[in-house]
């Protein structure tokens, strides 16, 4: 069931070119194609999953409760990446920082504190967030 999206395409019209968010411009330089969202956001299909976000600790990064994030397990997490981590038996979404050979999970909300990863903690990177699907309100 997890691989269902591979066999069923969900192509919708895609207008190439750019949509100007400033002053209107003539739309005579576009070409209509079809676009499958999976083709756009998934680089490593066998190592990628979607997950719904709960909570507001990453709102400063533009990731809000109810958003869907695309997570790629094939990518190596680097300092500054938003990651899905398993921390002491619970999943969390935070930005990974490496400073002075120490790991930190840092929220993007001033109401939450950074977590320093220390010896004795169960910690595992589950994947790197590559896209966020956010509903415009």
Tell me what the structure shows.
The chain is mainly beta. The protein has a domain at 41-133: Ribbon (Umud Fragment, subunit A), CATH 2.10.109.10. It is 7% helix and 40% strand. The chain has helices spanning 4-7, 37-41; strands spanning 11-15, 32-36, 48-52, 68-72, 82-87, 90-99, 102-106, 115-117, 123-133. The strands form two sheets. It has a seven-stranded antiparallel sheet with strand order 3-4-9-5-6-7-8, with no helix packed on it. The longest helix has 5 residues, at 37-41.
Keywords:
single chain; about 140 residues; mainly beta; Umud Fragment, subunit A; 7-stranded antiparallel β-sheet; two-stranded antiparallel sheet; 9 strands; disordered N terminus
Round the Cα radius of gyration to an integer and report it: 18 Å
Continuous helix count: 2
Mean pLDDT: 86
Q: How would you write the strand order of the largest sheet?
A: 3-4-9-5-6-7-8
Largest sheet: 7 strands, antiparallel
Tally of strands: 9
Task: Write the CATH homologous superfamily of the domain at 41-133.
Answer: Umud Fragment, subunit A
**Strand percentage:** 35-45%
Secondary structure class reads mainly beta
H/E element sequence: HEEHEEEEEEE
The rough form would be described as: globular
Low-pLDDT residue spans = 1-7
* The CATH class of the domain at 41-133: Mainly Beta
Per the CATH scheme, the topology name of the domain at 41-133 is: Umud Fragment, subunit A
* Terminal-residue CA separation: 31 Å
Portion of residues within helices: under 10%
């Amino acid at each position: 069931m997890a691989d269902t999206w591979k066999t069923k395409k969900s192509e919708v019209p895609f207008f190439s070119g750019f949509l100007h968010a400033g002053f209107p411009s003539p739309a005579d330089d576009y070409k209509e194609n079809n676009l499958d969202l999976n083709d756009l956001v998934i680089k490593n299909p066998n190592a990628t999953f979607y997950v719904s976000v709960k909570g507001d600790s990453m709102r400063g990064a533009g990731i809000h409760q109810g958003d869907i994030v695309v997570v790629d397990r094939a990518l190596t997490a680097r300092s500054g990446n938003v990651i899905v981590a398993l921390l002491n038996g619970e999943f969390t979404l935070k930005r990974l920082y490496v400073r002075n050979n120490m790991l930190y999970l840092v929220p993007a909300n001033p109401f939450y504190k950074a977590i320093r990863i220390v010896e004795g903690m169960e910690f595992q990177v589950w994947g790197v967030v590559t896209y966020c699907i956010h509903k415009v309100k």
